[in-house]
# Entry
Amino acid sequence: MSAESLILFFIVGAFLVGIALLFSSIVPPTSTNPQKAEAYECGIPTEGLTWLQFNVGYYLFAIIFLIFDVETVFIFPWAVVMKEAGIAGFIEIVIFFFVLGLGLLYAWKKGALKWE
Amino acid sequence: MTSNQFMFLLFSAVIVIFSILTVTSRRILRAATFLLFVLVSTAGLYFLLKYNYLAAIQLTLYAGGIVVLIIFSILLTSHISEKLPTAGLLKKWPAALVALVGAALCIVVILQYNFPGSVVDTEVVNVRDIGNSLISYGEKGYALPFEVISVLLLAALIGAIVLAKKRKD
# Structure
């Protein structure tokens, strides 16, 4: 990607978003009241702060996600050359998948994928 | 100023500004969000160098994975909405001193190096080359490291689950 196209991309992006915001602030009739500024929560008045303590389960999911994210990084280059790599490359990726499949099985068996 | 230089300066400015905001923000969740901008701009620098694969990794792993992990771990703590206290003078002066010495060392080393002025096209490493060398077992092949990575990831996965599950017992 050349720098010129990046600059053009930023300019066009800013222009599109800017035009949309400009028109939506000029054209429609506007009315303001305190309720409109609230965070949307199904019409019920919001209670307390949105920055509250989360369940510890999210963290485990995030870690598992990150590990499979790293896996994707290594599988992607293989996927690009899959056809020319032939059977040898295929066996290699099968071993790769097998070892990581063990990890997934372990996570499954330990109940790490279950929401508690 | 060429457009390359312009984009480099733009990305560098974003990285510097948001790095400073990251370390000076008194709200820890905002600091994590500022960090996201730093990481995305770094990916922009990689795109500028035509390191497309590295830029994609930077976006998926750092901007996608690590920041999510950081935000989740922040949300796990109970004092998210509180502002961090400002550091006292006893902490500020040694920190400033250490930062200054570190910066001075880096600047001196960089200035002493004589950068040879030459114009070379950036070497384009495409995903195809990386894929070929990842799975080939010949001269420049990385087939064995590729398989070892899967064992490493397995160890990381099991370790993460063991550590996270231990807390509940």
